[in-house]
Design goal:
The complex is a heterodimer of chains A (478) and B (1038). With 478 residues, chain A is α+β, with helices and mostly antiparallel strands. Helix content of chain A is 23%, strand content 32%. Chain A is built from twelve helices and 29 strands. Chain B is mainly β. Among the domains of chain B are: 2-96, Immunoglobulin-like (Sandwich), CATH 2.60.40; 268-309, no CATH class; 819-867 and 916-950, no CATH class. In chain B, the strands form twelve sheets. Chain B has a 22-stranded antiparallel beta barrel. In chain B, strands 8-13-14-11-12 form a five-stranded mixed sheet, with no helix packed on it. The chains are: A alpha+beta (478), B mainly beta (1038).
Chain lengths: 478, 1038
């Protein structure tokens, strides 16, 4: 009897302890905030006015994502905001997925994090701008509803799924036809090793060998040289001009691109026009200054009054203007050839070649130049290679510092070929550190590749035939 | 032995009865049944004796009516009955299972009745502990003796307990009580730590608890042990033959250990959300986070199956395990020699997979009478232990349990390919940099093989009836061999200044050799009134200890596991050698008048190789300093006085003692100037290691004790109370030196400390029927420690990330940190408070929502080290035990509860698991972390690297460490036997350990002791937790 009672007590005590211990942990682990312990899925069903969004989620492939782990930011449009939703989207799962994915982001972004504009990467790969209580154009009406796996912001408008600038250019008719045609003409096929199938390694070079025909990807010269307008992460402002204004510009620029082929001339002139039409960053109409500086250092005057169309893109904005003209004098920049960066020489005289670091006494700036002396060759030359030279007249200058001997000597520039006698021999005075005008020369037609030579005296005497150059400057003479 | 001797004398004396005598008659009855007790011996020491008849009556001549009768019978407790003028007596005798103050107790100077001992001493009769087969002796003592705090180190097999007797008396010296086993000092110090992280090779694991006959805890007046007696003494006596007939006992046990309840860490779902937050706060973009394999929920991803699991890592490390134990004891002999022989085997598997302990123990004790006057004894034991171990405690890359708590649950422990096929190979370190606990369980090797020979021979010559000479000579030889191999597979690399350490290999050998002698001359004069006992003796101890360690790294493959396979360039070899000698001359005199007044004087004079030559205290003999340690104790047995004749108080005794003891644990060579080898650009040379302090001496501990023993209801209720004070002077401290000294600090004797406390213990036989007996025992201790002098008034130490302050006027080891008061709910609330935190670069950063609200103690609006206050005290205000013994017919149920109250604990493990400053898995409380403005919670936000110091050492990590535990519960049944067969008696046991624990502590278990240092107490470093176990056993008596 006694034993039984003890057993009973022990049982009760065991239970009490089990419960007691559990209670301490439970108490410690309880999530004190009501919402913080719930998943976004649960939370959302508790928020008024989101039933439509919930229903759309249930219809889509994102049905369970908000109940899963990880961490999400959801911009949930209210029922009122979703009234405007195109019913074709609702009925097309892939479009619906895209639409919904534009409202959900990985990780947790609170309004307190968005004290400066946050580019939030959405699940569809697009970025939305999140600043304070605004995401894109939508206002956040209920902010920072934090759950166990992220946060919900209730918004009063849908966040539309926008095209990026390149998609606008290539797939819509938003920009004028001539420019669209030009930009698409810059397409070419490129090779991407990461997309190619490797079949082996070349035993001689150790380089990978790829299966022919793989790794070919579409590329575009504009993406390579200017900006990749498909990049969702960055924002750009893109300008397009009306066809008539474009044609006027084209005619202005055609003479600089003399080729044997009208099409080539058109394309080259066209590219020269549009290369300065993309600016990094997003300029709203209000923010747009009257002059912008392009990637190539060209001043781009923008007259807001000329804006005829504005197209918002997921990675920026496209403005169509009635006119935006840049004069050739602003477009073509002087070309500076650093003396030490020559592309080749007539003879291998590396032991006679000096790269010298000096301070220019006139400008006070440090410079590096090239000096080839004691080479023992008559008509020794250094070759400088230029590319895509427009057909126009240039003024040529150099800075050649003769501080290594007391006697003067001569050298000359030879555009095109080393034997060119367009310029006579010019005396290099002692210790002249200023720019010296050599003269003018004209390139008759557009040159894909163009060489200019610095030629030494026709002498084998060391004091007479040095070649020295800090830089050569070619200034378009327009 | 001594008892037998005195009884022999008594018999001899009883023949020549003194002329004046009074005849006393009486009746002896059994207190439980009320029936007369036959065959009970009634005697007056050194005068006369009688044995009761079947009706329990006796008649005995006494010198006068103030004499005291000694009543002793088989199965009954021995009693001292004062006549107090009575001629006719009736005595109710209790059975021997009740603790009695009249039982004999093993003391340093002999084997007197406990009532004759005026020092504070308690005895534990373990009854062979047949019902608790797995206990290690130090842990066995937990909760059984007031004043003795046994804190179990961990749940690793054989770990045992750290022992503190009446608090602590030293900061840097030992606080262990001296251990005497069979009259010889049992060295249980640790000579060099284990190479298997945070394991402790427990020398007490060599002693099989069933070999222990009894344990005396001498809390006071231990000055006969001179400078080894500062922390009191524990005297263990191993089994002897009680009778000459051959007695064979065989016990076999088998049982199970239960894995502790897993800590509630985040599961894979919760953890992934936590991880996403953490990676975001690290500054990773959402694209970078989304690209991580564990975030990609696409089954075709090659790492999908390796990163989408929900692994309970603790289950991969913790296990339920089995244990077994066999023990054989043979006792017997004849009138020339008696012997006790025992041997045993134990195999206890740990609750961490791959850990165990095997013990093979043998013991031979003999007592021989070579002639009438010349006798001898032998106590020999040899024990061999083998353990497989894993790293534990703070070893974040190699402790499998810690890895199990911090590893991401979405990983799995085996390699998995792209289509989900599981390989038997353990997975490697994961992308988050956490090793694989299973790799450590499967591939790590850590074994420890250790043995000890502990043996002594003693001889005694009875020169005359009163004078005897005895000597004891003994040897301890102890060897520990450890080997460790940590694989490269699945374990995070370690980086040193010149290499990346992939696999780690090591070996260690430790040796201890001790010679011990103890010789004495004793004088024992007994008559009816005055009893005098004198001892004069000399103890000598010669010790040498050696430790050799080799560590190498990066063996070619994980199959090459022994230490010579490492890269020779990375080899590390080290060790230590220590030799020291101790000599102790001691004298003690014990006098009592009519066994009512007791006075004892003790003194010891110690010399030790450790003492500095210029020690300021003590006396110099031949330029050698000798420490002088006197003590005096007195007691008065009031209840034997005439004026107490009609009192209901059956026992009343007052005790007082004062003693001075010393602590010689000051380092073998600390008082000398030493040099160490150093290489400078390839040149070898010797440099000084610190400053030798030739005045360095032992620490003094002065103990004062006042006690009272009370017995009521014919001693059914007994109460023992002591008020005590320990005062340490000349305490070792590290004194800071000026920078011009070229050394940081020097060890001096300039500290002082005191501890005051109360010990209480109560025994009560609640039910005393023939077939039903219920004994309740309760003991408790409280003490307060106070540092009285340390250089500079205070200093700080740190352990496991905790700052500990030692400050004059307060306890020596208080936790010192920031005071946390919750979490700022909003940025606005934080801005209103206006507090800032200093960053590593010196700049200030304001607290924001989700940061911890720290108290700005100095009101300078900056939270830094100056805002720290005392946030906890690891010393318990009450510790003790509560025991129950219920016997009903042939059943015996014993239950022992232990408790600790009022102690604060620094939960290092929870600190690690709630820091929320990295990608380690956390406790489920991390779900409650602050996430957005307005959220009211007590868990701060999760931030990578924790720049605001939300996880700094603060009151957040200090918890109440109080607990009440059902330490053991055992049920024994004595099976009735005819007695005709070979088996004479048979008992079955059912035993449970740690079955219940009541605590609010948020960890595996509130009991742990990372190391014996004062500064490591109350810090949960995540050692293997205590676990519950249950066993079934059978004992056969042949």
């Amino acid at each position: 009897m006694m034993k039984f009672r003890i057993y009973q007590w022990l049982l009760i005590a065991t239970l009490a302890v089990t419960i007691g211990c559990k209670k301490d942990w439970d108490q410690h682990n309880t999530v004190s905030d009501v919402n913080s312990g719930k998943s976004l899925k649960t939370l959302m069903s508790g928020i008024n006015n989101l039933s439509k969004f919930e229903q759309l989620l249930a219809q889509s492939s994102y049905a369970n994502i908000l109940g899963s782990s990880k961490s999400f930011t959801v911009f949930a449009p209210t029922n009122e905001a979703l009234i405007a939703l195109d019913p074709t989207i609702t009925n097309d799962t892939s479009r619906l997925n895209k639409f919904l994915a534009n409202h959900i982001a990985d990780l947790r972004f609170l309004t307190t994090d968005a004290t400066d504009t946050l580019r939030v990467l959405m699940l569809n790969g697009k970025y939305n701008n999140f600043f304070g209580k605004k995401v894109e154009e939508a206002n956040i009406t209920t902010a920072d509803v934090v759950g166990s796996n992220g946060v919900i912001h209730v918004i009063d408008k849908m966040v539309p799924n926008r095209l990026n600038i390149w998609e606008i250019i290539s797939t819509t008719n938003e920009i004028p036809a001539l420019q669209q045609a030009l930009l698409l003409k810059l397409n070419y096929q490129g090779f991407d090793p990461s997309k190619a199938e490797q079949t082996g390694v070349d035993p001689m070079t150790g380089l990978p060998v790829y299966k022919p025909g793989t790794g070919i990807v579409p590329r575009n010269k504009y993406w390579d040289r200017v900006y990749d307008l498909r990049n969702e992460k960055n924002q750009y402002t893109f300008f397009a001009i009306a066809d008539d204004a474009y044609t006027t510009q084209l005619n202005t620029y055609k003479p600089f691109f003399v080729t044997g082929n009208a099409d080539s001339t058109n394309d080259l002139a066209g590219y020269t026009i549009v290369k300065d039409f993309t600016m990094p960053g997003l300029y709203t109409q209000a923010q747009l200054p009257d002059t912008l500086l392009s990637k190539f250092g060209v001043k781009v005057p923008v007259n807001k009054a000329n804006i005829v169309k504005t197209v918002k893109a997921s990675n920026g904005i496209v403005y169509v203007l009635s006119n935006l003209s840049i004069a050739p004098v602003n477009k073509f920049m002087p070309i500076v050839l650093e003396g030490e960066n020559y592309s080749g020489s007539s003879h291998d005289r590396r032991s006679n070649t000096f790269f010298r670091d000096r301070i220019n006494s006139t400008t006070g700036l440090p410079y590096r130049d090239v000096l080839v002396s004691g080479h023992g060759v008559a008509l020794f030359n250094l070759r400088y290679r230029l590319s895509e030279m427009p057909s126009m007249k240039f003024k040529a200058y150099w800075v050649a510092v003769n501080d290594f001997q007391t006697a003067t000597f001569t050298q000359r520039l030879a555009p095109g070929v080393a034997t060119s006698t367009v310029f006579p021999y010019t005396t290099v005075a002692v210790n002249n550190q200023t720019e010296v005008l050599i003269g003018e020369f004209t390139i008759a037609s557009f040159q894909q590749v163009y060489d200019i030579f610095l030629v030494g005296a026709n002498s084998t005497t060391a004091a007479a035939n040095p070649v020295v150059c800090d830089y050569i400057k070619l200034v378009p003479s327009l | 032995m001594a008892q037998a001797q005195s009884q022999g004398n008594a018999k001899a004396d009883s023949v020549k009865t003194a002329p004046q005598s009074v005849l006393v008659t009486g009746i002896i009855k059994d207190a439980a049944t009320g029936k007369p007790a036959a065959g009970v011996r009634v005697s007056v020491a050194g005068f006369s004796a009688d044995i009761t008849d079947n009706d329990g009556s006796f008649s005995v001549k006494v010198p006068d009516l103030q004499a005291q009768l000694v009543v002793a019978g088989e199965g009954y407790q021995t009693r001292l009955v004062p006549l107090k003028g009575r001629k006719k007596l009736s005595v109710d005798l209790h059975s021997e299972s009740i603790e009695s103050v009249y039982e004999n107790i093993n003391m340093p100077g002999g084997n007197p009745m406990r009532s004759e001992v005026s020092a504070a001493a308690a005895q534990v009769n373990t009854n062979g502990t047949w019902d608790q087969p797995l206990e290690i002796p130090d842990a066995l003592l937990q909760g059984r003796v007031s004043g003795l705090n046994a804190v179990r180190r961990s749940g690793a097999p054989g770990a045992g307990a750290n022992l503190f007797l009446r608090g602590f008396n030293s900061l840097y010296g030992t606080n262990k009580p001296l251990l005497i086993v069979d009259n010889m000092i049992y060295d249980y110090n640790d000579y060099g730590e284990s190479i298997i992280a945070n394991n402790y090779t427990n020398p007490l694991a060599f002693i099989e608890a069933k070999d222990i006959a009894n344990v005396t805890v001498l809390k006071d007046a231990s000055s006969v042990y001179g400078t080894k007696g500062a922390n009191g003494a524990i005297i263990i006596t191993t089994s002897r033959a009680k009778q000459q007939a051959t007695k064979i006992d065989f016990g076999m046990y088998a049982g199970a250990n239960a894995a502790p309840t897993a800590l509630p860490v985040l599961n894979a779902t919760e953890y992934r959300s936590y991880l996403a937050d953490m990676l975001q706060s690290k500054g990773l973009s959402s694209a970078a986070v989304a690209a991580m394999p564990f975030m990609i929920d696409d089954k075709s991803h090659p790492e999908y199956y390796a990163t989408h699991n929900n692994t309970n890592w603790q289950k991969k490390v913790l296990q339920n395990s089995i244990n077994q134990n066999y023990f054989l004891k043979v006792t017997g002999g004849d009138n020339i020699a008696t012997y006790a022989l025992s041997m045993g085997f134990m195999d206890n598997k740990g609750i961490i997979k791959g850990t165990d302990m095997k013990r093979y123990n043998t013991r031979f004790n003999a007592e021989m009478n070579f002639s009438q006057r010349f006798s001898g004894s032998a106590n020999l034991s040899f024990t061999y232990n083998e353990q497989n171990l894993k790293d534990q405690g703070i070893a974040n890359n190699t402790n499998p349990l810690f890895l199990a708590l911090t590893k991401a649950p979405f990983y799995t422990d085996r390699e998995v390919n792209a289509v989900g096929d599981v390989s038997p190979n353990p997975a490697d370190v994961d992308a988050l940099g956490i090793g694989n606990p299973t790799a450590l369980i499967d591939l790590m090797q850590g074994y420890n093989k250790y043995y000890r020979f502990y043996g002594s021979f003693g001889f005694k010559y009875q020169i005359s009836n009163k004078v005897s000479a005895s000597t004891l000579f003994g040897v301890t030889y102890d060897k520990v061999r450890e080997n460790i191999f940590i694989p490269r597979k699945g374990v995070k690399d370690d980086t040193t200044s010149n290499a990346i350490l992939e696999s780690r290999l090591g070996a260690q050998v430790k040796r201890l050799f001790t010679l011990y002698t103890d010789s004495r001359i004793s004088f024992d004069n007994k008559n009816t009134k005055n009893n005098l006992k004198l001892n004069l003796g000399l103890r000598y101890q010669n010790n040498s200890a050696e430790q050799d360690i080799a560590r190498t790294f990066n063996s070619a493959t994980d199959e090459l596991v022994s230490v010579q396979n490492g890269v020779s360039l990375l080899r590390q070899v080290g060790g230590s050698v220590g030799e020291w000698n101790w000599m102790n001359i001691y004298a003690n005199a014990e006098y009592n008048y009519r066994q009512r007044f007791f006075l004892s004087l003790n003194a010891a004079m110690d010399a030790s190789s450790r003492f500095g030559k210029q020690a300021t205290e003590g006396i110099m003999i031949n330029d050698i300093p000798f420490a002088v340690m006197p003590s005096v104790t007195a007691a008065w047995l009031l209840s034997s006085e005439k004026f107490m004749a009609n009192s209901a108080i059956s026992l009343l005794r007052l005790r007082a003692s004062w003693s001075k003891t010393g602590n010689d644990d000051i380092g073998n060579y600390s008082s000398r100037q030493t040099y160490t080898v150093q290489s400078l650009l390839g040149m070898q040379g010797l440099v000084r290691t610190g400053i030798g302090n030739p005045a360095l001496q032992w620490e003094n501990v002065q103990r004062t004790n006042l006690g009272v023993d009370v017995g009521l209801l014919n001693d059914r209720l007994q109460l023992f109370a002591d008020v005590w004070q320990n005062k340490t002077t000349k305490m070792l401290v590290y004194e800071q030196l000026p920078t011009t000294a070229g050394m940081r600090s020097v060890l001096t004797n300039n500290g002082a400390m005191q501890t005051r406390g109360i010990d209480l213990s109560v025994n009560f036989r609640a039910i005393n029927k023939a077939h039903l007996k219920w004994d309740i025992g309760f003991n408790a201790t409280t003490y307060k420690n106070k540092v009285t002098t340390v250089p500079g008034g205070s200093f700080e130490t740190s352990f496991a990330g905790a700052d500990i302050i030692t400050k004059e006027g307060a306890a020596a080891n208080q936790f010192f940190g920031l005071q946390a008061n919750g979490v700022y709910a909003t940025d606005a609330a934080a801005a209103t408070a206006g507090l800032q935190r200093r960053m590593a670069d010196g700049s200030l950063r304001p607290f924001t929502g989700g940061d911890v609200i720290y108290t700005d103690l100095n009101a300078d609006k900056i939270i830094d080290a100056n805002d720290r206050i005392v946030i906890g005290n690891p010393n318990a205000s009450w510790i003790g035990g509560f025991s129950n013994r219920l016997s009903w017919k042939r059943f015996t149920v014993e239950a022992l509860f232990t408790f600790s109250a009022g102690n604060d604990v620094y939960n290092y493990l929870r600190h690690q698991l709630e820091s929320m400053n990295g990608t380690n898995n956390q406790l489920q409380s991390a779900n409650n972390r602050w996430k957005s403005n307005g959220q009211i919670t007590n868990m701060p936000k999760a931030t990578y690297g924790d720049p605001m110091g939300n996880a700094d050492f603060s009151s957040r990590w200090i918890e109440n460490g109080a607990y009440l535990r059902l330490r053991t519960l055992s049920i024994a049944y004595n099976i009735p036997m005819s007695g005709k067969g070979m088996v004479k008696d048979m008992n079955v046991y059912l035993n449970g350990n740690n079955l219940l624990t009541f605590t609010k502590y948020l960890g595996y278990d509130p009991e742990f002791s990372a190391n014996p240092s004062v500064f490591a107490q109350g810090i949960d470093t995540g050692l293997t937790p205590q676990f519950a176990s249950a066993m079934f056993g059978l004992k056969l008596g042949l």
